[in-house]
User: Fold this.
Amino acid sequence: MDRRTLVKSAMAMAGAAVSVGEAHAAPSIPSAQEYYELRKYTLRTGPQLALTQNYFEHALIPALNRMGVASVGAFRLDIGPETPTFFLLMPFASAEAPVTLESRLSSDEEYSRTAHAFLTAPAQSPAFVRAESSLLAAFSGWPKLTAPKASKRIFQLRTYESATIAAHQRKVQMFNEAEIGIFVKTGLTPVFFGDALIGPRMPSLTYMLTFADVAELNDHWHTFVTSPEWKQLSGRPELADAEVVSNISNLYLSPLSCSQI
Assistant:
């Protein structure tokens, strides 16, 4: 099975989930669904940090912008396992775009020139330890990445795994029909929500929130978990965490200087 066939198969599997009933209205957002490639670069302290950040800033992000890919996020992991680690978030208009990205980059002469040191780093001094990618489909309840207005922010990247596909579908629909609306109402500020089509630890979903600082993060999460709407929704037996979520990954990130988010 080639990569295009794999993407189409994954998209077909990400169909409609079980309804959870009445929805809290989310804010008005453009309806065109995006797709996200989320890359994780595991690094070693030392030259790899500068080499990879330079690659992002002077080669990859400018090349993506020339292709029409805007609002590319570049982050360092502040709190979480496996530091140092960088994350790259690339929004695309179609699922095919990330599949063909490398071939399009290879035909960009400016990219090839500016990425040379990163791409040709010797095996004895590699540019990174390893890289992992996930392909995500934006939720229907939040179909477009929303970049924060303020530049000085922290970001929270959360991944929810589910024990079964049915449980995962209920959790995605729970977000689409109600939970995203409660997020917004209680002051949580989403950047994106994505259903994993290809990647590790499936079935899973990943979303990103942004805050001015840790104090705001804690305050707004407290408002959310104590809200009557959330208590009512999460109190439904079929939507309790024990039924729809088997594991949660919670990472705190800060933007690199080259980040467009």
